[in-house]
Amino acid sequence: MITSAAVAIAEARIGRPGNSVYSGRSRAIIERAYLAFRSSVWIVVATGFLEPVMYLFSFGYGVGKLIGKIEVLPGHYISYAAFIAPALLATSAMNGAIYDATWNVFFKIRFDRVYQGMLATSLGPMDVALGEIGWALLRGLVYAIAFMSIIAGLGLITTPWALMAIPAAVLISFGFAAVGMAVTTYMKSFEQMNVINIVMLPMFLFSGSFYPLSIYPGWLQAFIKALPLWHGVALIRSLSLGMISASLIPHVIYFLVMIAVGLFFTTRRLTQLFMR
């Protein structure tokens, strides 16, 4: 019956745009990921969430005692913990997405050979891309909700606009997952995969997570503003502090472009690898 349903779905899409790469069954990839998750070690998932939490307590309430208040607007000061909490939420969303969309995908491509079997069915490369990225989004969403609950419990949320930080975190997860998976499809060894970690760490440290952008020299500020995490930090920090303006639109557009580019290259690369 399952096979008949899959064939019926594939036949129904004949003649539609993109039918050669998309069958409309990306949900099957998410279901498989969930079954695999149930049999995995939960501590692997928990580490991606616990890291930002530990940074919040060690820096926000440790180093923060030495720093004092941070001026976010002329005459408007907030605690250091409230300043870094939105940045850590953006980081948590990034971590939740990037871990699933990179190392997990790398093993499936290079060792488990899972995608060969998937693409031998009615599934297309776009189904695989959307399914894997969709699962990464769910992980990023869980991280965002859990982290938001913690900072709300600590009294670091002072405006209803902060609730919009959760869908913003999902958008950030989507962007990083799409680009992360696209990059991973080109990786051939563990050494190459380590480049991802090498890029992520300095991006985390220099994207305005712990310091206002104004402390950097002008030439470095321009470089930092090109980093995706800076856009995520700026977006969530503005929402968390209730600073709503048209200046948030470029941040949203930045991630929409990441999503489009990531999906395009992921689909193209999976087609090249497994559908020759």
The best one-word shape is elongated
Total strand segments? 2
Mean pLDDT: 82
Annotation field: number of helices: 11
Going by helix content, strand content and strand pairing, the class is mainly alpha
Integer count of domains: 1
How is this structure best described in words?
Helices cover 72% and strands 3% of the residues. With 276 residues, the protein is mainly alpha-helical. Helix 2 (27-38) crosses helix 6, helix 3 runs antiparallel to helix 4 (80-112) and helix 3 crosses helix 6 (125-153). The model has no long low-confidence stretch (mean pLDDT 82).
List the helices and strands and how they pair.
Layout: H1 2-12, H2 27-38, H3 42-67, E1 69-73, E2 76-79, H4 80-112, H5 114-119, H6 125-153, H7 165-184, H8 190-206, H9 218-224, H10 228-240, H11 249-274
Antiparallel strand pairs: 1-2
Helix pairs in contact: 2-6, 3-4, 3-6, 4-6, 4-7, 4-10, 6-7, 6-11, 7-10, 7-11, 10-11
